[in-house]
Amino acid sequence: METVPIQLPGGTTTPVRLFAGPDHEHETRRDASRAVVVIVPGLGIPAGYYEPFAQAITEHGFDAAICELAGQGDSRPRPGPDSTYGYHEIVATHFPAVAEVVRERFPDSTPYLLGHSMGGQLGVLYAARIRGRLGGLILVASGTPYYRHHGGIRGPGLWLGSTAMSLTAAVAGFWPGDRIDVAGFGRQSRVLISDWARLARTGRFEPAGADIDYEERVGRLTLPVLSITIEGDDLTPVASAQHLLEKLPAADVARWHNPRALGHNGWIRDNDDTVAKIVAWLRDR
């Protein structure tokens, strides 16, 4: 594994982890059909937790990379009152910096973005900005938090909880997830939490500072998409994942439900069947 630090606006430094497949360990070989799987973590999950998953991908002959979301894991500094990044800045500024590192290391590999949970939401918005420069999207345990697509008491709870979180973050200047543990979100930028909360209440991608109509752009995407849901995942039930896919009517969508009760995060380490499905899908591209 190689680690390349990148400097983001506002003084944030975050690493990109790079994993070369067997043929790329010592030299770059031209292989038009080769893929590099770029993993975007879920909110509150450090990039290092995905290292075994990335390594498993490379064992099947592909390259892999993991980005660290700003303020998480090995990224510094931690979010505070000066942190003003949200969905838009991440996909418009942070992700292009990650993509440049990946492109320099694997210049002849086609990038496929794998997003987990919020990472999938961000991946969809990034794809909408760059359109034809991704081979496809892989969404694992990823949907929207829109309260109407979460059953039972969880739906109203999401509406109320997201509102309370947004207000708390606005007052504190950041989301104090290191002191208030809600869904393992961790300490986060107030803008990021506000964007997430707006999506939970309205079901629409309308991030602060947007310079494009993300909903309209997402609706025009035609790239291949693999959506994987996981049995026992209370944070991303099938209806939540389906709501995200409904925003992609022109995309070439494949769906697979992992019947093993691994929950929202268990598939990352107990990954054989999920990796096998992703590898088979990539080889069909």
TrEMBL record:
Domain spans labelled Serine aminopeptidase S33: 33-142
Pfam families with a match to the protein in the record: Hydrolase_4 (PF12146)
Hydrolase in keyword set: yes
Keyword entries, A-Z: Hydrolase
InterPro entries (UniProt xref): AB_hydrolase_fold, Hydrolase_4, UCP037442_abhydr
GO molecular function per UniProt: hydrolase activity
Superkingdom assignment: Bacteria
SUPFAM superfamilies noted in UniProt: alpha/beta-Hydrolases
Stated name of the protein: Putative alpha/beta hydrolase
